[in-house]
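Subject: sequence -> structure tokens, single chain

Hey, anyone have a minute? Need the predicted structure for the following. Not urgent.
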Amino acid sequence: MEAKCSLYRTIQDNLYRPGEAIIGGVLYLTESLVVLLNFTEPPDRSLYSSLTKMRKYQHVLALIFAIDEINKNPKLLPNVTLGFHIYDNFFHSRTTHEIILDLLFTEQKHAPNYLCDRRNNVLSIIGEFPTESMIEITSIFNTYKIPQFTYGTHKTSLCGKTGSPSLHWISPKESTHHMGIVQLLLHFQWRWIGLIVSDDDGGESFLQNFIPVLAQHSICVAFLHKDTVKNYHTENQFLDNFPKLILAVLLPEVNVIILKGDSQLIIFLSDQLDVFEFVTKIYIGKVWIMPPQWYFSAPQSGIIIGAQFFQGALSFSISTKTVPGFWDFLHTFKPDESMKQFFCVFWQYAFNCHLSSENNKQFEKCIGNEKLESLPIIRFEMDMTGQSYTIYNAVYAVAHALHAICLSRRGTVPKRGKFKPLNVQPWQLQSSLKNIHFNNGALHEVLFENGELSIGYDVVNWVTFPNQSFLEVQVGKISPSHEFFIQEGNIVWNNRLQQMPPHSKCVESCHLGYSQIIQEGKPPCCYDCAPCPENMISNNIVMSTHAKSSKMQIASVSYQCPEDQFSHRLLHLFNKTKSSYRNEQINLSLSFPDAVHCVKCPEDQYPNKNQDQCRQKIITFLSYKEPLGIVLLSLALSFSVITCLVMQIFWKNWNTPIVKANNRPLTCILLTSILLCYLSSLFFIGKPVKDTCIIQQMAFGVIFSVSVSCVLAKTVIVVLAFKAAKPGNRLRKFLGKSVANFIVLSSFLIQVGICIAWVSTTPPFLHADMHSQAEQIIVECNEGSITMFYSVLGYVGFLAIVSFAVAFLARKLPDTFNEAKFITFSMLVFCSVWVSFLPAYVSTKGKHIVAVEIFSILASNTGLLACIFSPKCYIIIVRTDLNSRKLIIEKRS
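Reply:
Had a minute. Here:
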């Protein structure tokens, strides 16, 4: 029996402590390498050539520590003693099934569905189970409604397949691990990565769930290599598969590689890389992202496997907290008689001594002073690991659920005799365990939600040292809600990297102000850079840019060939494979939108010259302080003064023949309207407000209609005067003031009616034009209705055309002071100005529209003033001899 400690482990080598409530443990302590099956007789329970995972024995001790702590706690199950029954499942499906049946039934009578020999005091099972048999294992526990806690890798796909209320995950969700990797990649802007996964169901499941997450976050897979140890049974198989992997790993643009596989695959990968470096003298430096809960392996020699390759690697470990008392428990732990058989293999590998009382030729007898703290960290850790912490919490969850049931029955936990089974069935724990909130023995808050432990991952940096030791440095964290935090300055990178932290990208990054243009037929991470269009910017680089080529480029290396034949063959195959890969694109073409793109600035901002920032637009309008505003204001005031002078001249010469001959009331109204037209242009200058927007257009339209109607009335009266001079002409009765008043008043009222309709329907309003000028916000008055605006303008134009036509017909009528020819010129100027105004108004943008309108008002108004009144002023001031009654009589005779 003692020999089994060195050669075998069987399911009889279990650890049992009686109690009123038993917690089962099916833990992964030994890895089976070869399983011998014999179909001629019932299979024995031996597993040959097993590999003991010494670090995992902490899981056993964490479970024992939690139960001891609860049994000593007077407030938690004070009158109930918890026991345990722990097995090593060898992480093998057949053995795991045997262990479960042995745990549920006494005397190894594996008779499912018979309750006579069942251990009724087994309330829950805690363990790590093979993925391929998880559904079958869960169905067994579900049959007997026994709560099952598993701390293995959380498989989202299995949750839907099992559909078991008895299954409780005490490891973080698979999505948390995936998002942790993605957040890590995004933090360092690693967008061009490699994937090496195991060629089995676990690797395929990982790809199906992880690849879409990468795609959603614009991360490309440069190469995907599926591998397993089974692919290398012979030397030829090794030589066939080896160059493909090495070529992928050597990609210069890919400095980050994600590993997802079992420990055997990672150890074998390390061996392959070691062989390659030995043959080619090329040293490989990459950032490796290891599987969750990974740790360095070391054979009995104590040499860390893959220390040079995985130096500075990053991985995700279940978040843990310090548990007081656990270090002291490990410090004083010694296997008693009931534990020696279970711990004999561990003790032999750890301390090179045996616990048996019999002689052992291979190992010396243990003297009893062996301390777990003396073991190197590669073999055993004194600090509680993440998986041990989840086991610790699972035990407390069962204890709190059981405590709640006992309190609900009588209000207190009943007193019982030693190890008498409680009258509690496993299924009664289910409702409490599904959602339970408590504080564990270390007073840490623990929360189970929907059968899952709310827990995240710590980001761990693995630092190795020349003395074959290593250090796990916590550099970050991802919470269950996917909140990510990392301390970049605490990371120790692989000393083989050329740049720290390294870049892992297909191409160089686009400069600010450029956008990414994905090239047809190439991976999304390989793209060109194009300048942003006008009015757009790009101000954040979240992806590496611009690919020159997505084909694999392997640098030429000068090889020094060793003398052995195997190395020659290896180099030959490597060079051959390299040539064939030069034109082969090994990447996953992921379909997702471009991450770096140009965006428009907000309406009140504009892009700077480099198109990498948005700047605030300047609010602008035709101001009194700017040169253009000053010029227009000066012109308006100057012509207003001139108009006033003309009015004064006419007032002083009110009774002279030239003033009398041109209808003095109309002349006064015309001069007044011309003055008001000049002054109305001032409403267009300065910062507009709501009231000025309405006044400026209405004043312009009404006052101009009065001016032009006065001109029309003057012309009509001249024509009527000559027509009525003939004896017996009926037009003589229209020569009074009534005709002139009617023309002016009717024209005025029609324009007022149009303006009232404009204000009542769609009046002008204050408007901020953000698009006409790239760097300015133009505050202006919007016409409201362009139709009504052109109606007002068109009516004034109609009056001007009629005035021009009548004046043109009357221009040759004989009279001393005939105004018709001067009115003809004034209306010609007036119409020319406003005909030119229309195209200028439509084609001009911004505040220059206001300047065009002001200029048209001033120009047309000045045409009226100059053409009509300058000849009269000339006669009144310079040629006073012409302004006499005697001269008029002489001309008429």
